[in-house]
From TrEMBL:
The protein, known as: ATP synthase protein I
Entry keywords, A to Z: Hydrogen ion transport, Ion transport, Membrane, Transmembrane, Transmembrane helix, Transport
Similarity field: Belongs to the bacterial AtpI family.
Record function comment: A possible function for this protein is to guide the assembly of the membrane sector of the ATPase enzyme complex.
Keyword Transport: yes
Parts of the chain that traverse the membrane: 52-70, 76-97
Composition skew (Basic and acidic residues), residue ranges: 26-44
Domain of life, per lineage: Bacteria
Pfam families in the cross-refs: ATPase_gene1 (PF09527)
Disordered: annotated segments: 26-45
UniProt keyword ATP-binding, yes or no: no
GO cellular component entries: proton-transporting ATP synthase complex
Length: 105
């Protein structure tokens, strides 16, 4: 008897599920594009530039700070500052050359 009773329309349900899956895939693709999922490869140069800038600024500021401290305690103003600033700049450029000579992955 249960075989003759009309049941839910499976054709309509399948069409709705297919439509829902298509819209879900389109929404996920839009979200991935908006979030920048494809930008991971192109960020390498940007990160390298930021690292080089940080090395340069860090070397100069670190050298100047250490030189200033040496000058305050030893009373050799301004020679400790100048020597350590030059040394920090040299070390920063050495690090930049080392970074730029590495092979990309």
């Amino acid at each position: 008897m249960a075989e003759n009773e009309p049941g839910p329309d499976t054709l309509g349900t399948d069409a709705r599920l297919t439509s829902l899956e298509e819209r879900l895939k389109a929404a996920q693709a839009d979200e991935a594009h908006r979030a920048g999922a494809g930008k991971a490869e192109s960020d390498g140069g940007y990160r390298l530039g930021n690292r080089v800038l940080a090395e340069l600024i860090g070397g100069m500021v670190g050298g100047a700070l250490i030189g200033w401290v040496i000058d305050r305690f030893a009373g050799t103003q301004p020679w400790g500052l100048l020597v350590m600033l030059a040394l920090g700049t040299i070390v920063a450029f050495r690090n930049i050359i080392r970074i730029s000579s590495q092979r990309p992955k």
